[in-house]
Design brief:
The complex is a heterotrimer of chains A (617), B (216) and C (238).
Chain A lengths: L7 H5 L24 H10 L4 E3 L8 E3 L4 H10 L5 E10 L9 E9 L7 E7 L5 E3 L8 H12 L2 E3 L71 H16 L8 E5 L11 E7 L2 E8 L7 H7 L5 H6 L6 H16 L7 H30 L4 H21 L8 E2 L2 E2 L7 H24 L3 H7 L7 H6 L5 H5 L6 H4 L20 H25 L19 E9 L2 E9 L5 E7 L1 H5 L3 H5 L5 H10 L3 H5 L1
Parallel strand pairs in A: 2-5, 6-7
Antiparallel strand pairs in A: 1-2, 3-4, 4-5, 8-9, 9-10, 11-12, 13-14, 14-15
Helix pairs in contact in A: 8-9, 9-10, 9-16, 9-19, 10-11, 11-16, 12-16, 16-19
Chain B lengths: L3 H24 L7 H7 L27 E7 L5 E3 L6 H5 L5 E7 L6 E11 L8 H5 L5 E3 L10 H4 L1 E2 L1 H4 E3 H7 L1 H27 L1 H6 L5
Parallel strand pairs in B: 1-7
Antiparallel strand pairs in B: 1-2, 1-5, 3-4, 4-6
Helix pairs in contact in B: 7-8
Chain C lengths: L1 H11 L19 H10 L11 H10 L22 E5 L7 H10 L5 E5 H6 L21 E3 L6 H16 L21 E2 L3 E2 L4 H6 L2 H5 L25
Parallel strand pairs in C: 1-2, 2-3
Antiparallel strand pairs in C: 4-5
Helix pairs in contact in C: 2-6, 3-6
Classes of the chains: A alpha+beta (617), B alpha+beta (216), C mainly alpha (238).
Chain lengths: 617, 216, 238
């Protein structure tokens, strides 16, 4: 099942994989120069004995030896200017065949904050003793991503100061994303399951579990002796962080837990806060309360089955999630899967409507957190409902749209929908956004609660891999739609919204700005939408994707949404990872909050605009 | 001056407050409990009270709306029901959470599969309403229902839908999705015609049969 | 709204006794149950408690278009101590279930649980996941199940009306919270190597670990869908 053998024929069908491979350039057609080969050879030239090119067909970037990783990362950041660590993730190349090679791989995707393509490098380590040096002091944005890789894959990051489990709890048995780890409800390695048809005798899987639940326990466990270890460890680390903040603790500090059930944590999110009086001295986010094993399920699903699951990542903006996943898979499938013109326009229209509905929601609930309980949210929800009506008429569902397919969209816009969008975009929404602006922007209470609160400098924002509105509110005009254009965004005339103070107020303002820019894009897209097909080729229920890897990213409403997928040429993805903007934006939360008053925690959190489905996946 | 912003905000809420009365007065009694009233409240120039008074008035769901899937059966002129489902298993294979179970019929004498399922189950506690089963069914045999009022007191007894509970007549489908129904029936009729023409041609000249495309 | 209260008012005003026609205008008789239940059904305060995607639809239900206030349910309380109804809106994970059980224990009687959506009812599309609880009713008793993924706000309202129906059918002499003795709290699960329900201690000690590891045997007797109701929801016994 872990087919890693290079297939020359499949590499010939992946011309879109941005893989400058001199060795196999005879078979691979000219790849778009997304990652300039000059720099790559530079990396190789600079570290001749530590770096070598990844020779597997369909793969890009270099393989770096673990002991030189930190030097390479330092060089890449300081000399090559790849200052934005977009994604760090692990892949378990596992084979239970006797002679096959197995290893763990950590993949790094880096970008320049000034725009352009990616730089990819990876580290390969043995599975049974996976240790990789931590990059947390070079790229602080690696913090949570390394913890996630430790939690799910058991890769130890040497030098990480707080390497606790992040999604599962401390004490959980095993690292669940490893390919040889099986859950209690394990039925088969890959979907579709054989027993659903033609002998599909229905059963509930819990009835076949000895406990009647989704549980399994290690051998010889005495359940009465089990104690929870997660919280003591958390408080210990919190105290450590507090000591870093101020050496002499003369007043008694208290620990306050906000969440997981708290009205302003936007879901089941928890923050353990250590307070000196009312001042925050340390804050640790605790997540995983909505960890739904998206990636583990995603690797069992077929390619197309993952589409409705992506709806449930950032459930406020399912269309954008669809978009990112479709782009990643289409990248791997090559130009034969490029969607037709009309589908591209529909995609852009839907993605921008999603941004509108998401930002309206975000503004409404940020004001909720500021204490304006529910009236701004009610006004925002009214507009969102009208947008959801469009989604419902087009896709059949208000929230879980499941609308994009590889090479197009599921169905054409029904009669009358385009007129409705036109009405909204030209008439109602500009008026309503102005009204929202008049209603809130100059409000003295909003200003005094927002200005100068939770300031993030541009350097910090880039270092912590913050993305989307959080990054742009700090004065970094980085928008994937402009920096690394995808789909047809290069055709539209719009400004990348940017604000320069990096505080809560600017993070609110940037969303108002982006609402207006989205309307501009929508107005152009509605004007320019052509007729014609909405799907390239057929829409088969099972597709095979050529072997290789791809990293597709879009500018989601919450920030840069990336999908890292690895295919081994079969009907199911071998690795399916989501670079969730909400999750990575939370890395900067502690920096935002330390030194401020406890009342500002919820405001800071609200201004990041997280969705727990995406944070925990 | 400090406080202007707050006053502006209060002005906006005040306008909203008065709009809710103004629109009610303008519409007289017709704003509520009438189809055009509901339509007005969901249109892009709605003002004032936005609320739909469920359950007295219900927001009409669009044609594409999807909830739990259901199975279609045709009723012939003698009143006999025929499942459209041929138990080909595509819906079970494409279902992302794998919530469909199908038992294929076998002819008792020849042991060959009969194109009609004996049993068809959907576990609605797993179903994610994604609509793939309806989208990829080549026989238009499974469609997404519009009925969302399904709350119950017991899931253990009721939430695995069997074939009996899932089956609904084609006329019901034609009622909830008229456009789709008309389009699909046209395609089906065309294919039937093609099939009939092919069969006729095959009967006339065996040589022509090779040229006729298989009608499935 | 008035159209809704009127039939119910007359329903309260009828205890099944014949009254002379001349008294009908002046005297109303009813049963204590009916008065009691009417008071309760129109003031169910849900807990402001959201888990996942369904929570967004729950918020929409409470917001401008669907307006839960019409049912007397607009007072969403962030504290379990002040709420009557827990809407379990979304995927219940193993990491979250101890908190959910704790919240449930903290709610004062009478209390109801509405399981919203496929995930809360039976695990939903994420059922196979290693961190997902396949049905919140394995830990706390559930009164109403609303299918759908996610249920639309109108579907949730229908579920809430079902709950009102259930409240109407109760009698203060029979409901468990007015009986003698204390209702024991549901033991809070522990996060060990996997989630451990204290009620399962004996089962965990006795179960053969090999059986726990074995994947579902396809040969196992098929459960008839309608007849096979497994053990009642976990909490109802307590």
């Amino acid at each position: 099942m872990t087919d890693q053998t290079p297939k020359p024929d499949s590499s010939a069908t992946t011309p879109a994989a941005p893989t400058p491979k001199p060795e196999s350039s005879a078979t691979a057609p000219a790849a778009p120069p997304q990652a300039a080969p000059v720099e790559k050879s530079e990396l190789e030239k600079k570290f001749p004995d530590a770096v070598k090119r990844d020779a597997r067909p369909g793969y890009e970037g270099d393989v770096v030896s673990a002991d030189k990783l930190r030097d390479v990362a330092m060089y890449v950041r300081d000399d090559l200017d790849y200052d934005f660590l977009s994604s760090l993730t692990a892949v378990d190349y596992f084979s239970d065949l006797p002679n096959a090679a197995s290893h763990m791989e950590v993949v790094y995707h880096l970008y320049k904050s000034t725009g352009g393509g990616s730089l990819v490098f990876r580290v390969q380590v043995p599975r049974d003793n996976a240790v990789v040096p931590s990059l947390i002091d070079i790229y602080p944005g690696a913090d949570f991503q390394e913890r996630e890789a430790w939690d799910l894959y058991g890769i130890r990051f040497d030098g990480h100061p707080d390497l606790r489990r992040i999604l599962m709890w401390e004490g959980f048995a095993g690292h669940p994303m490893r390919k040889d780890w099986k859950e209690a409800y394990f039925e088969e390695e890959l979907k579709p399951y054989k027993n659903r048809w033609p002998e599909g005798q229905v059963y509930r899987i819990e009835d076949r579990n000895p406990y009647g639940k989704n549980n399994k326990y290690p051998q010889g466990l005495n359940p009465e002796t089990v104690t929870e270890t997660a919280d003591p460890l958390l408080y210990e680390n919190l105290e450590k962080a507090a000591r870093e903040y101020s050496e002499d603790i003369d007043t008694e500090q208290v620990v306050v837990n906000l969440g997981p059930q708290h009205p302003s944590t936007h879901g089941v999110f928890r923050m353990a806060v250590r307070l000196d009086g009312e001042t925050i001295v340390a804050l640790k986010p605790v997540m995983g309360y909505l960890h739904r094993n998206h990636e583990k399920i995603g690797e069992r699903n077929t390619w197309i089955m993952n589409m409705p699951f992506t709806d449930r990542l950032d459930y406020l903006s399912s269309m954008s999630n669809n978009f990112g996943y479709a782009i990643a898979v289409e990248k791997l499938m090559g130009p034969k899967a490029a969607p037709p013109e009309r589908a591209e326009y529909i995609r852009v229209i839907m993605a921008e409507l999603t941004r509108l509905s998401n930002h309206l929601w975000a503004i409404g609930f940020l004001l909720n957190d500021l204490g304006a309980f529910f009236t701004p949210a009610l006004y925002a929800i009214t507009e969102r409902e009208l947008i959801l009506d469009i989604f419902e008429a087009t896709t059949g569902s208000r929230m879980m749209c499941n609308y994009f397919r590889f090479g197009g969209v599921a169905r054409d816009l029904p009669a009358g929908v385009l007129e409705k969008i036109k009405d909204l975009v030209h008439e109602r929404l500009p008026r309503k956004i102005d009204e929202l602006d008049l209603y809130l922007t100059e409000n003295e209470l909003v200003r005094s609660r927002g200005e100068g609160v939770g300031v993030i400098t541009p350097e910090q924002a880039i270092a912590y891999s913050a993305a989307g509105p959080v990054l742009r509110a700090s004065g970094v005009p980085y928008d994937v739609r402009r920096a690394d254009p995808y789909s047809i965004y290069d055709r539209f005339d719009f400004d990348v919204a940017v604000r320069y103070h990096g505080d809560v107020y600017d993070r609110y303002m940037i969303r108002i700005d982006e609402l207006r820019q989205s309307l501009r894009i929508l107005q152009q897209a509605i004007k320019g939408i052509p007729g014609g097909e909405i799907m390239t080729g057929k829409n088969p229920y099972q597709i095979r994707v050529p072997a290789g890897e791809a990293y597709g990213r879009v500018e989601g409403p919450k920030g840069e949404l990336g999908y890292y997928i690895v295919s081994n040429g079969k009907a199911n993805p071998y690795r399916y990872h989501v670079r969730a903007p909400s999750f990575i934006n939370l890395t900067v939360l502690e920096k935002m909050c330390v030194g401020q008053k406890v009342a500002d925690v919820v405001v800071n959190l609200g201004s990041i605009d997280i969705v727990l489905g995406e944070v925990d996946r | 001056m400090y406080g202007i912003g707050v006053l502006k905000g209060l002005w906006v809420t005040l306008v909203h407050f008065f709009e809710s009365f103004a629109d009610d007065i303008r519409w007289g009694g017709k704003r509520y409990y009438t189809a055009e009233g509901i339509q007005h409240r969901r249109s892009s120039d709605t003002k004032g009270i936005f609320t739909v008074q469920y359950p007295e008035e219900k927001l009409p769901v669009p044609e594409e709306f999807r909830f739990i899937p259901f199975l279609l059966y045709d009723v012939d002129e003698n009143g006999n029901a025929h499942d459209r489902c041929t138990s080909c298993g595509i819906c079970a294979k494409v279902c992302p959470p794998q919530c469909i179970w199908i038992v294929r019929t076998e002819d008792p004498t020849t042991k060959r599969p009969v194109p009609e399922p004996v049993e068809f189950y959907i576990d609605v506690d797993i179903c994610m309403n994604c609509g793939y089963c309806a989208e990829y069914c080549p026989f238009d045999a499974i469609k997404m229902d519009h009925d969302y009022e399904l709350a119950s007191f017991d899931r253990h007894a009721e939430h695995i839908y069997n074939k009996e509970k899932l089956s609904k007549p084609t006329s019901y489908y034609a009622g909830i999705r008229p456009t789709n129904y008309t389009r699909e029936e046209k395609v089906r009729a065309d294919e039937e015609a093609k099939k009939a023409a092919g069969a006729a041609a095959r009967a006339a000249t065996p040589a022509a049969a090779a040229a006729a495309p298989p009608a499935e | 709204m008035t159209t809704e209260t009127r039939p119910n008012a007359s329903a309260v005003n009828n205890a099944g006794y014949d009254m002379p026609p001349e008294m009908r205008q002046n005297v109303a008789i009813t049963t204590l149950d009916k008065i009691w239940n009417m008071g309760r059904r129109y003031s169910v305060w849900p807990m402001m408690f959201g888990l996942a995607c369904c929570a967004i639809e729950m918020i929409c239900t409470a917001a401008s278009r669907y307006d839960l206030a019409r049912f007397g349910m607009e007072v969403m309380r962030p504290s379990p101590r002040q709420s009557d109804l827990m809407i379990v809106s979304g995927t219940v994970t193993k990491k979250m279930i101890p908190q959910i059980v704790r919240l449930y224990n903290q709610m004062p009687e009478p209390k109801y649980v509405l399981s919203m959506g496929a995930c809360a009812s039976g695990g939903g599309p994420f059922k196979e996941g290693y961190n997902v609880v396949s049905g919140v009713d394995q830990y706390i008793p559930v009164d109403v199940y609303v299918p759908g993924c996610p249920p639309t706000p109108q579907a949730l309202l229908h579920g809430l009306m079902k709950l009102q129906e259930k409240i109407d059918g109760e009698s203060i002499t029979k409901v468990r919270w007015y009986q003698k003795g204390e209702i024991p709290a549901i033991p809070v699960p522990i996060l060990g190597p996997d989630i451990i329900d204290p009620r399962d201690y004996a089962l965990i000690r006795e179960a053969k670990p090999a059986a726990a590891q074995a994947p579902a045997a396809p040969a196992a007797a098929p459960a008839a869908p309608v007849a096979a109701a497994p053990a009642a929801p976990a909490g109802t016994a307590s």
